[in-house]
Amino acid sequence: MGMLLAANKAFNLTAIRDPGEAWTRHVLDSLTLLGVLAEIETPEGQSLRVIDVGTGGGLPGIPLAIARQDVSVTLLDATAKKCAFLDHVAQELGLTNLEVVCARAEAAGRDRGERTGTGRRGGHREMYDLVVARAVGRLATLSELTIPFARVGGLIALIKGAKADEELVEAKGALHLLHTSHAGTVQTGTGRIVVLEKQRPTPKSYPRRDGEPKRAPLGVANK
Questions:
Q1: Is the pTM of this model over 0.85?
Q2: Distance in angstroms (rounded) separating the CA atoms of residues 57 and 98
Q3: Each residue of 167-187: pLDDT tens digit?
Q4: Which residues lie across from 50 on neighbouring strands?
Q5: Cis peptide preceding 63, ω within 30 of 0
Q6: CATH architecture assigned to 2-215
Q7: Per-domain residue ranges for the chain?
Q8: What is the 3-state composition of the chain as percent helix, strand, coil, each rounded to the nearest 5?
């Protein structure tokens, strides 16, 4: 947390500058996802894979990587300066289970990797057991930016605030188009976690072009 607040003086990573408040609002808030993480089972011998979409200063991904070093965590962000900071933090903390990917969610969500004789290698689309994100947009937008990363049967856990129920109603059409259902909402001491379960592969047309999910949220009528 000290590295985050120090780096925040150079470029904006968080609006919270008080160390005490940062521990509660950032670290503890991130660790509320551990309960969801504990529910996921993977085949024996395989490491559970998590991706943090729009991670910013590394939240919630870095606290999860520290708490569960048996889990492979990918941090995704489109800003080069933030990615450089995240690489530095991973090296300083010796987090060998942490990877930083600098790309837009729309592009990474379409990345299927390289085709090989036995399947595909690398890539991010439908490669993760759990997809997490925290306060980076309306659920109708966020669903299109996160669901493509989850494997079929995987979970998407989104940390939201008081408007979670309202956003779920608005996102009903998006979830239907993305073949994903609302598995439940978990009330925590710092907010709410909206948990989605991916039922079938994401249609090839999603996510749409860069910026389109935010400009025209999926399944939401233009007002």
A1: yes
A2: 14
A3: 999 999 999 999 999 999 999
A4: 73, 130
A5: no
A6: 3-Layer(aba) Sandwich (3.40)
A7: 2-215
A8: 35, 25, 40
